[in-house]
Structures are given as C-alpha cells and as structure tokens.
Amino acid sequence: MSLRETYTTQIVPKLKDALGIKNVLAVPRIIRVVVNIGVGKHFRDDKDIDYIEKTMTRIVGQKPIRAKAKKSISSFKVREGMVVGLVATLQGKRMYDFVEKLIHITLPRIRDFRGLDMKSVDSHGNFTIGFKEHIAFPEIGSDEVERIHGIEATIVTNAKTQERGLALFKALGFPFKV
C-alpha cells in the first residue's frame, strides 16, 4: 500500500478524531516537497554543478532548476547571474514517493541516527530536514561518489500550526526523538 493510500484510508480518520476536526478537507496534508542543494565555494566549476545536477535528478526523479544569484555580493565572491543552488519542487505521486523513501529507506541509512528533532517543524507546520551527505539516499552508490555534498528537503503542509504539523508527521511515520 502506498503512502497516499495509507494517508487517505488510515491517517485522515485518525487525525480527524485526534485533532477534533469535523471536515475531512480540513485535515492537515502535504502540499509539496521542495528539495534544494546549495552550490558552495567548492563547486564553482560547471563540471561540478553538472555532477550535482545529475545526482539530484537521480534522487528526486526530475530535473532541478538552477537557482541564480539576484545580485553580486563581493564578500561571498558571488556575481549576479552565477549559479548558487539547485531546486526541485515535487508534487503528486513523486512527492509521496519521495516522502515514503525518506521515512523507510533514507533515514534508517544515516549513521548514528537517533531521531528527528521536533523543533524542525516550524510554526506553520512545515518540516525541514538537512543531510550533510547525499550518499544516504539509495540511488547514490558509495563507489560512484566524486564529491560529497549536502541536500535539504522542506515538506510543506497546510497544517497552519506546529502542533497540527507534528501530528501529521507522527501519523505518517516520521521517527522523532522522544
């Protein structure tokens, strides 16, 4: 059973009762997942950016957009129009597949993983998680890694409060610290 089917058949009724919501459409749900990688000072070469783009494409299942600097900042050695990051927005089936892979495969593969921090859920119910190494994802084999880079995922919900967001993420199966 996929995460989407589990959400509609099991999680929605449970959250509806737990949060005291009368309308099914008011139950918190995931709207989109935004995955991004910042291109640091080590990745100024086009070859390195292409490598990061290929790994991100394999991880999220779609080609990311290259985010460019809006203005020049001399202290960071950034010029206007320079690629400073890669961003992919996931919705629909890809979004649910990514979240399911994150919960069941990626998080258990992290060394010394003791659970997610509840403070990562913001006041609007959105959850942001960062990975220092992209090799935690199953699509990346450890033998084919040229350089290790970080990756960040933000799961955007319509929860509106931190409590509702936490209830949604706990119901989905995210492993939080006790």
Record the SSE blueprint.
Layout (H helix, E strand, L loop, with lengths): L2 H17 L10 E9 L7 H15 L4 E4 L14 E8 L1 H15 L20 E5 L19 E7 L4 H11 L6
Antiparallel strand pairs: 1-3, 1-5, 2-3, 4-5
Question: How would you sum up this structure, described in words?
Answer:
This protein has 4 helices and 5 strands. It has about 180 residues and is α+β, with helices and mostly antiparallel strands. The protein has one domain (about 5-170): Ribosomal protein L5 (50s Ribosomal Protein L5, Chain: A, 2-Layer Sandwich), CATH 3.30.1440.10. It has a 5-stranded antiparallel sheet with strand order 2-3-1-5-4. Helix 1 crosses helix 4. The radius of gyration is 18 Å and the shape is globular. The two termini are about 25 Å apart.
Strand numbers in spatial order across the main sheet: 2-3-1-5-4
Could you tell me the CATH topology label.
50s Ribosomal Protein L5, Chain: A
List segments where confidence is low: pLDDT < 50 over at least 5 consecutive residues.
Answer: none
Beta content comes to 15-25%
CATH superfamily: Ribosomal protein L5
Question: How many helices in DSSP terms?
Answer: 4
Distance between the termini: 27 Å
Q: Output the helix-strand order.
A: HEHEEHEEH
Q: Can you tell me the number of structural domains?
A: 1
